[in-house]
Amino acid sequence: MRYKYHVLILIFISGFITTLNGQNLNKEGSDSLGGKNEKECVQGAIGDLFRKKEKAPKPPKKILALVLPNISSNPSNGFLLGVGGTFGWYMGPKENTLVSSAPFTVAVTSKNQIITFVKSNVFTKENKFFLQGDWRFYIYSQPTYGLGTNAPDTIGLPGGFHWEGEGGDLDSASFPMKYNQVKIHEIVSRKIFPNFYAGVGYHFDYFYSIRDEKLKLDTTPQLLTPHYYYSEKYGINQSEYMLSGLSANLVYDSRDNQANPYKGIYANINYRYNFKFLGSTTEASELWMEFRTYWGLSKKRARNLVGIWLFGDFNLTGHLPYMTLPNLGGDQRARSGRGYTNGRFRGKDLVYGEVEWRFPIWPCTNLIGGVIFVNATTTNNPDRNVNLFQYIEPAVGFGVRIMVNKYFRTNINLDLGGGQAPGSID
C-alpha cells in the first residue's frame, strides 16, 4: 500500500504545479500553457483535435447522443463487453433550463453476468419539474463480507457460524452471491422555490434466483453465511425477496451542471416506506441524506476545483432484506467507494464521505483533466454490537478525465484506486 501513497503524492505535486502554471500570466498577457492569450483559451473537447483549424466549430445542439463500446476488466465483472454512453438534452431554453441526462449501459461479462441500466436526471422546461430515475436489470454475481465495516471479523460469531479462511487470508472470507435483480426507482419533484424541489417517488427492488454459493447445510460442520444467518434471524425468504415502497423527497440543487458541475450545492433528503400491501417482503423504512458542494480554486480555469460528497443511508424501522441493506455503491450512479468493489461494506446504516480535487492537465483548452480522491466508509451491525464510526475504512486513488462534449460537459472517466481492507480493487 505504501507505494500507492508515493505515486499519489507525485501526481498531486505535478497537478498542483500544472495548476499554478495555468494561473501565472506573463507580462504580454499570455499564459504559460501554450503561449496563447487568455481569451483564446476556451474549453476544448476531443472532437476539436480532428477539426481543421480554419473550419468554424459547429454550434451547440440541444441533444447529445454519446454511444461508445464498453470494454473493461475488473474483479467484480471479469472481462466486460458491451455498449455504454449517455443522452443529454434540454427540454427548454438553455438560459433557464438545466441540462437533462441519462447514462446507460448494456453489457455481458466473462462471469456470465448481464448488466443493463438507465439512470436519468430530467429537468422540464424552466426547471419546473425534476425527475430522478434508476432502472436496472442485472443477472449478477457479487461477493459479500458480512455486516459492519469490520467484516469479515471472525471474533464473537454465534455458535455454529463458520467463516471459511478463519486464521488465514482475510479475503478468502468473502461469500459470493449470484442473483437476478430488477430495480425501478422514479421520483418526481416540483419546484417550490428557486433551486428547491419537493416530490414523491415509487421504489421497486426485486431480487430472485438468489444463490448463496458457500452455504453448506448438509456438511459437518455446516458452513453458514452472513446472508443465511441474517435472513434466518429475521424470517426472510433466502431465494427471493422484494421491496415496494413510496417516498417523500426534498431536493436543493444550485449546481450549474448535474453531470459535471463546476459550482453549486446539491442536497437531498428522501424518506421511503416499504409496504407489504404493495408487495414488500418486509415492512421497513429508510432515510437517505446527501450533500454535495464544489469549491472553485481558480477564476480563470473552472475545471480546477474541489468537490465534497457526503451521504448517509439509514434503515430506520423494520428489517430490510440482506441484499437491499445500505451498501457501498448503492447510490444512484454507483460511484461511491471507488477503490472497493460494489457492496464491499454493508450494514443496517452506512455513512460515506469523499473529497476529490479536479484539475486541468491539457494546455489552454483543458481537454484532459486529472482527479485525486480520498474517501471513507463506515457501517454498523447491531447484531454484533458494531456501531457507526467504530470502524472506518478509507480508500485513495487518482484518475483522468477526457472531455467529449464541452457543451454538455460529458467526460470519459478512468480511475484507479484502492484501500487496505479485503475487497479492494487496487
Q: How are the secondary structure elements laid out?
A:
Elements: H1 2-23, E1 63-74, E2 78-89, E3 100-109, E4 114-123, E5 129-144, E6 175-193, E7 196-212, H2 226-233, E8 241-253, E9 264-274, E10 284-296, E11 305-317, E12 349-360, E13 368-379, E14 393-405, E15 410-419
Antiparallel strand pairs: 1-2, 2-3, 3-4, 4-5, 5-6, 6-7, 7-8, 8-9, 9-10, 10-11, 11-12, 12-13, 13-14, 14-15
Structure description:
- With 426 residues, this protein is mostly beta strands.
- Helix content is 7%, strand content 45%.
- Strands 1-2-3-4-5-6-7-8-9-10-11-12-13-14-15 form a 15-stranded antiparallel β-sheet.
- Strand 4 (114-123) and strand 5 (129-144) form a beta hairpin.
- It is globular, with a radius of gyration of 23 Å.
- The chain starts with a helix and ends in a 7-residue tail after the last strand.
- Residues 1-35 and 154-171 have low confidence and may be disordered.
Q: What is the radius of gyration?
A: 23 Å
Shape: globular
Strand order of the largest sheet: 1-2-3-4-5-6-7-8-9-10-11-12-13-14-15
Please report which band the strand proportion falls in: under 5%, 5-15%, 15-25%, 25-35%, 35-45% or over 45%: over 45%
End-to-end distance, in Å?
9 Å
Instruction: List the total number of helices.
Output: 2
Alpha-beta content class: mainly beta
Helix content: under 10%
Please count the beta strands (DSSP E, at least 2 residues each).
15
